[in-house]
Amino acid sequence: MPKVDIENSCYAGKILFFDLSTKKSKSIDVSSELALKYLAGDGFGAYFLNKHVSGEVDPFDKENALIIAPGLWVGTTIPTAGKTGFFARAPLTNGWGEGIMGGRIGLAVKQAGYDALIITGKASEPSYLLIDNDEVILKNGEHLWGKNTRECAEMIKKDEKNNDLVVADIGIGGENLVRYAVIDCEERQAGRGGLGAVMGSKLLKAIAVRGDKDIRVKDPEKLEKLTLEWHEKMRNSSAFKDDGYYGTGEFLEWMNAERGTFPTRNWREGVFDERKHIDPYYWAPKYSIKNKACIQCTKPCGKAFVIKE
Ligand code: SF4
Predict the structure, then answer these.
(1) Cβ-based neighbour number of residue 232 at 10 Å
(2) 266, burial (CB in 10 Å: exposed 0-12, middle 13-18, buried 19+)
(3) CB of 300 closer than 6 A to ligand 1?
(4) Within 10 A of 166 (CB to CB), how many other CB atoms are there?
């Protein structure tokens, strides 16, 4: 079997486990075999969830794990490759739960030295997990309970006197175990499956991370050259312009009128007749004021709105 040079292949090199019940942490090394078989991100999420959580566990049981695993290329210059996966048994489906977001939390996790965080157990009071490089502490978060995600993130940075912290947190929906509650980081969300409610069930309001370790690649010059080539290709594609104006919903009409594959009424139908007002060709010119991108993305499909009417 070929060997992965973990130190120089975009891996941070460690997996961090934290048990909220005992407040204890431990870490293990990422082996070459694990890297070859599962390749970080989704692969690590699937591997560790399968390994540590039985299929019988209720999503709100403390035996459920919340796993955060940045994609392998997070922290490099590769465009659109800055995504981080959140994984758990999902409250919405009682099965595999996966939410992907483009906030900076995965970058911070890698800079702190970890390719995945695996959080188990349940805190005894509303709490937040603070990770500052090798220092991992569970802190009281009762004053944060009831706050929305923006307020909570700002309060943690203020409490810790540290603006470099990157915070992933839940709002009131997650606290109240709403089965489709999201996890937010800097207005990007892990939105699928209700993973915010898994955090709520663990009384974990937020995860705040800072790190200052480098993410190493074997041949930085070659990667830079490839990155510039990819940027050029993206910039010259028709999707680049349309995504910039209308976001990823720009193909909504095509999915409905030409393909009949628009997920409608929980996939019972593939065409949504009342689609006019959710079509970005309708709302983007009226309300959109600027674009917002995930980290590492030069093709920003996120939109900020102002609705005056
Ligand atoms: S901003 Fe849009 S296109 Fe860019 S990485 Fe995020 S989701 Fe993908």
Answers:
(1) 9
(2) exposed
(3) yes
(4) 23
H helices of 92-250, in order, are 105-111, 149-159, 172-175, 195-201, 220-235, 238-246
For the Cβ of 81 lying below 6 angstroms from any atom of ligand 1, the answer is no
What is the CA(299)–ligand 1 centre distance, in A?
A: 6
Tens of pLDDT along 51-61?
A: 999 999 999 99
The burial class, CB within 10 Å (0-12 / 13-18 / 19+), for 70 is: buried
End-to-end CA gap in the chain: 62
Cβ–ligand 1 contact at 181 (below 6 Å):
no
Q: Is the shortest distance between the CB of 46 and ligand 1 below 6 Å?
A: no
Q: Which CATH class is domain 6-210?
A: alpha beta
pLDDT category at 126 given cuts 50, 70, 90 is: very high
Please report the pLDDT score of residue 240 as a whole number: 85
Q: Which atom of ligand 1 is nearest to the CA of 81?
A: 5
Taking the centre of ligand 1 as the mean of its atom positions, its distance from the CA of residue 166, in whole angstroms, is 19
Residues 155-198: pLDDT tens digits? Answer: 999 999 999 999 999 999 999 999 999 999 999 999 999 999 99
What does the DSSP 8-state code read for residue 303? E
Q: Does domain 237-305 have CATH number 3.40.190.10?
A: no
- State ipTM: 0.99
Residue with token string 């890698």: 110
Q: Residue with the nearest Cα to atom 5 of ligand 1?
A: 80
Q: Is the CB of 74 under 6 A from ligand 1?
A: no
Which atom of ligand 1 approaches the CA of 296 most closely? 5
In the chain, where are the structural domains located? 6-210, 237-305
